[in-house]
Design brief:
With about 280 residues, the protein is mostly beta strands. The chain has helices at about 40-65, 95-100, 260, and strands at about 10-20, 20-30, 80-95, 105-110, 115-125, 130-135, 135-150, 160-175, 180-195, 215-230, 230-245, 265-275. It has three helices and twelve strands; from the N terminus they run ββαβαββββββββαβ.
Length: about 280
């Protein structure tokens, strides 16, 4: 504040303008009344001095608090959330040529039923395009194996209902490119699944004459799109998961060995539609 003469007041006011995407403070002199002289008592003048200096101080502190655009949520190195999904579990069944050469019983994949996936979602950003994702969780589902027979006698082969409950440890690499508020991407990776519901021995009370191994390793591939909704990031993707090993336990049921003997190998196949919330 400057008083060039006792009857006039000139203020040094902070103002703000934008230059090259940065906010710059420019102070300039403004005459409160360029045409009319003002006579201000001494006490009022001291109060005015204090008020103007307080305003100037607030202007300086406010300049440091002006929000600037920080990194996007997907540009942070680490983010976490959860995943809900629906799955369809199937089998790739190879019949036993040795068995079918002497008997006309043929296994095939039966009806499919939707299952449920629940996962944590841990994302580690590598750069603008690539992320590593670790999604530990559990999944539940069921698969049916049907049998076709050309036997002339009265043997009836019942469908085999095989339920699975997996602990999953998928590790994925995601490649995506952001376009304003959405981000299409593709994913690929591996998934270790452990079926803790798989039976270690046949149960007399259940008419199930096939058993599955507990562990299996899968390779996965899929695609999806992410949406940026303020504080929430939502993504939806569809992926295919193919097992690498034969999951059939080659230990025939003592009373019904045909169910197992007619199959050379079984590989697991799973489709998963997921919603990710982060």
């Amino acid at each position: 504040m400057i008083f060039p003469d006792p009857g006039k007041v000139i203020l040094l006011l902070p103002t703000f303008t934008e230059h090259n995407d940065r906010i710059v403070r420019i102070s300039y002199l403004r005459d409160l009344n360029p045409d009319v002289s003002m006579t201000i008592p001494g006490k009022m003048k001291r109060i005015l001095f204090a008020a103007v200096f307080m305003l100037a101080g607030l202007g300086l502190s406010g300049q440091n608090q002006i929000p600037s655009d920080g990194p996007w949520e997907d540009e942070k190195f680490f983010s976490a959330g959860y995943t809900l999904g629906l799955n369809i579990m199937t089998f790739g069944i190879d019949p036993s040529d040795q068995f079918t050469a002497t008997d006309s019983v043929y296994p095939s994949m039966g009806s499919v039923f939707p299952g449920l996936n629940i996962h944590l979602a841990l994302n580690f950003r590598l750069n603008q395009f690539f992320d590593i994702r670790f999604l530990p969780g559990i999944s539940f589902g069921q698969r049916n194996v049907n049998y076709l027979s050309e036997r002339t006698h009265d043997t009836v082969f019942s469908p085999q209902k095989l339920e699975s409950s997996f602990i999953e440890l998928p590790l994925q690499l995601r490649y995506g490119w952001r376009m304003q508020n959405f981000k299409p991407y593709i994913i690929g990776g591996i998934n270790y699944r452990y079926d803790f519901y798989a039976q270690e021995k046949y149960r007399l009370e259940r008419p199930v004459y096939l058993r599955l191994n507990k562990p299996d390793l899968y390779y996965e591939a899929g695609a999806g799109v992410g949406f940026f909704l303020g504080e929430l990031r939502l993504a939806v993707d569809l992926k295919m998961s193919n097992g690498l090993t034969d999951v059939l336990v080659h230990d025939p049921h003592p009373e019904y060995p045909e169910y197992c003997n007619t199959i050379e190998r079984i590989k697991s196949r799973i489709w998963v539609l997921s919603l990710h919330f982060e």
